[in-house]
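new request in #modeling-help
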Amino acid sequence: MDANAENTIRVLIVDDIAETRENIRKLLQFESDVVVVGAARTGIEAIDVARETEPDVVIMDINMPDMDGIEATEAMLRDVPFAQIVMLSVNNDSDYVRRAMRAGARDFLAKPPSGDELISTIRSLSILAHEQKSKLTTPLPQVASQGPAGRGYTGSLRPQGKIIAVYSAKGGVGCTMLATNLAVGLDTDDTPSVLVDASLQFGDVAVALNLQPKNSFSDLATRADELESEYVEGVLLRHDSGLRVLAAPPRPEMADEVSANQVRKVLQFLRQHFAYVIVDTSSTMDDITLAVLDVADNLVALATPEIPSIKDTRLLFDLLGVLEFPKERIFFVLNRTDRRSGITAEAVSEHLKFVVDGEIPLEERAVSASINRGAPLLINDRSNPVAKAIINILGVLKERLVAEAEGTDEEDEAERSRLFSR
Ligand SMILES: Nc1ncnc2c1ncn2[C@@H]1O[C@H](COP(=O)(O)OP(=O)(O)OP(=O)(O)O)[C@@H](O)[C@H]1O
Ligand SMILES: [Mg+2]
């Protein structure tokens, strides 16, 4: 195997114990795309070897003579900024993990790692290394060296994901029903997604998915300043479909302890790890909901074809205008449409001067059975008219998200922090 070939994954092993270095080398020897380009016994030696060999991935022990793995990580990244560092330690004390992540480490594995986890970690990090390397070698524009300070512990393992808020100015119009189904539909191997219940007081996403909320938003909020992947992974619930879920706190009074800033930080963290972060919200326009809108890239706004809902939607659109939420990032859905109601989507569009992007028919029995059973229609009854309507909506929404993503590079990043920089 050519160690310099473009797709080769160059690995450096750093450990003071010869046997550990050898064991890791053995675990990697049959991987045709992986080449161990060097090994080092101490932190200082590791920095020198990294400079010479320019590894994509470094497997780094924490406790070593002369300089520990955390200091070595920080120093190494100044010379080889694209290197992705995986810490190996018997000690997974959260203080260690936090320090390592702050120094710029990308992942943490318990010692001794299994072959599978080691290889899959190396493979996923190598993609990032290759991307960063190609950016660094592109002569224009000038790329700032990504020293440790620039590689916060929330360092992205994937390109920045999209935060999609599902909101209605009026309660009870179907946000949870739509958010759960959209999340199930958006979550694929290529676009892993997480559904967040930001209706903190009386959120019912977990119920709608028949999940036992062992952990909740509160567990991340209290640690919002020091989130790290392994911990977050443990807090998220997993739906049978594979979708990850962040449940609302189990008791309404616990919602009071969650601040708007914490909500912002949690969502920003999740977007580093998921392609789509779908957020179900409460219709109360409080500081929590404002925080969600502040960081959201897209908004799925929901209404029903009834006068009170339409009136409140007009107020919502006015408010979004004041907040300078880009109009083209709003996806407007009319739920519970019924030929007999007398108010058509066209009439709503006309009245609000806003295009209705999707319609979901009224289907009392099927929807309420699906919510009560905790079984989203998109999984359990795809031939149902509501499921069909949502599948249509998903198609249009996905197309829009992809088109936006393709255009995003040219957009000014400053637009992200457009809303209330409080
Ligand atoms: N298309 C539909 N047809 C019939 N019933 C529907 C439809 N969509 C939602 N519902 C019903 O409306 C009720 C409210 O739905 P849901 O809980 O999703 O709304 P919500 O906006 O999240 O409410 P909340 O403000 O309480 O969070 C549920 O009982 C659900 O069964
Ligand atoms: Mg709800």
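bot summary: The chain has two domains: 9-150, 162-417.
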